[in-house]
Structure formats: C-alpha cells, structure tokens
Amino acid sequence: MARRYFGNIRKLPSGRYQASYKAPDGKRHTAPQTFDSRQYADAWLSRVRTDIQRDKWEPPDAAKVDQPAPPVNFGTYAASWLAGRDLSPSTRKLYRIILDSHILPAFEDVPVSEITPAMVRRWHAGLRTETGPTQRARAYSLLRTILGTAVSDDVITANPCRVRGAGVAKTARDIRPATLPELNALAAAMPPRYRLMVLLAGWCAMRFGELAELRRADIDVKNGVVHIRRGVVRADDGLVVKDPKSEAGKRDVNIPPHLMPAVKDHLLKHTGRGQEALLFPAVHGGHLSPATLRRPFHRAREAAGRPDLRFHDLRHTGAVLAAATGATLAELMARLGHSTVSAAMRYQHAAEDRDKAIAAALSELAAGTVTPISAAKGAKRASRAR
User: Fold this and answer.
1) pLDDT per residue over 259-270, tens digit each?
2) Is 266 a catalytic residue?
3) Which of 118, 200, 222, 254 could form an S-S bond across to 356 if both were Cys, CB 3.0 to 4.6 Å?
4) Rounded distance between C-alpha atoms, residue 42 and residue 51, angstroms
C-alpha cells in the first residue's frame, strides 16, 4: 500500500493497481475498477480530490453497492480496457481496427460474463474464411488479452479463450537470408548515401526504424560500437521517434571491424557535422521514410539476383550470420534486442564483451575464414594450458 497526501494505491497480485480514498462522509471508498499502472490510479484519485475541493463529490449510491452490479457488455468493457492502456499511437490504432473489424461484430452486445469457450471457438472458426492467418492470430490474441484482464478485475472467473495455438500465426512465407555475395552485391548496387544502411542492417541485424533514427552521436568510431536507443515509426500524424518496445531493444552492438572504413567514409561524406545529425536523412532533411528507400532498394535487389528480398529480411540475414560464428542463443538475443516474458530472465546476463567477439568473428566470416567463437575459446584455453 502506497500512502499519499490523498488516497492510497495498492498493487494487486494480478499486477494491476487499486485506488481508495477516505471521503467527506468519513468512509473509505474504492475505485470501481482497477488500473493498468500506478499513474492511471493516481490520475483517478486526483480527479476525485478535485471534485471534493469543488464540492462536486457525491457518495456512491448505497443501494447500488448492496445490489449485484449489472453485467457489463463486452463492447463497453473493451472500450474501457483500450482507454486505460499505455500504448503507442500505432498499436492503439491497430487494436482499434482489430476490435472494429473482427471482434465487436461478434461480441459487442454480449455480457462479458456470458462469453463461453464454445462461443469463442465458433467465432474463431468463422474467422478462417474471412481473414489471413496473421490477422486471425492477432484478433484472437487481443480478445484473449482483454478477457484475461477481465479475470484480473474479477469480472469473470476464467478466460473463455482456450483454442490451442490460435494466438500464433504460421508464417506462410519462408525467409531466405541473403548470402555473403548477395549482400555485397546488394550494397554495391545501392546509392552511396544508403549503402551503409544496407550493410548495418545485414551485419548488425538492425531494424529500419532503428537505422532511420541513428545520429552521429550514436556511433562510437573509436570502439566500433553503435548505440541503439530509439526508433522511428509511422503514426497518424506522420513519423514519430519513440523508445524500443522493451528495454532489451536499447542495446550497444559492436560493428564488425571490416565495416568500419565504410562507417568512417559515410560519416565524412553523407552525415551532417552536428552530433544530432541523422546518419541516413531524407534528401530534403528529416527522417527517411520506407517509401523513399523502396525504389533504390528494389533496383538493388534485382541487381543482386534476389527480387524476393525485403529490407527487413536483412535483419534475419544478420541473425543467421551471427549464429554462423558460434554465438549462443543468449548472445543472439542480446545482439538483436529480442525480449519476451519467458526469455527475459534467461537472456539478461549476456555479456557485452561477448558481443565484441561476435563482431570480430563476423569480419572473419566476411573474409572467408570462419572461426566459431566456441572453438576460439577452446584454443585460448589450450594455449594457456601449454
């Protein structure tokens, strides 16, 4: 229980927050709903305190407290759920589209407490004829998440979403990473101002949004490290700079040494002088958009003999190249900035000096000399023994 100047906030076992306050009637009252974060609970208490100060506060209806609350429809609950979430603009927009297109037509007027596993299975089966596998998995996952919160809020006792594997989309497209000759040919065919962008995407496994937000200050030339702290994403009002989705996304990636001449040349010829200058700005300034890069990239992939290659596939290429050096799964997770609830504890101890070893091995791979990290460690131990 966090004691405050007005009211109390308590973190529940579910991870949500409950707010309560002592009112002018001398009684302690609890918020009618729990909150996704302490900040939202604090905001609710602030509104109540303002009502009290302005003599607009009214005690909850005692008669309603003694009677069972009327069942809440899914549409009402989903709207409240969405409003109470701290989401990026793009994620909020996506959830709104999924709700309106796939979930609310089936469940909007249904009381949350009356949604059964059989209803969910019939709804999910109907989605098979209407949507692709990715949208179907997203719709199911969103419904399951909303109803999971309803369980935490004691609106229902159990989650009726029990379709095994329904929240995972099977990828219909097999990703074929670029080979080293293809990656080199692709970079060579790109305009000089974007050549390093392809190389960093392929060798450092960086996302387009991370690359588009890179600034001169993010490149440590002396130590050969790129500091990834932000990304740029498209929202309703244009391109927006934001933090990565997880703390794992904020990472320092060692650049393979064989790329450093290209990095220095790019900084000299294609990057502004200031520390905040973008590495890959649009022609007229500002952030580079995916649409601007699309045409030269498509020409370059044709020249490399890989018309199927997407820019994001270069990140997959970088992961495969790093794995070829003998990097462990934990080291790959650290290098790529991946994080999940189940993997966070397992991968959080990946050492930064091991990432430098991966980067050095990548340059050896580029030179045609593959020296797996595990073998290199064995050689060092044997040398010390001698």
Assistant:
1) 999 999 999 999
2) no
3) 254
4) 14
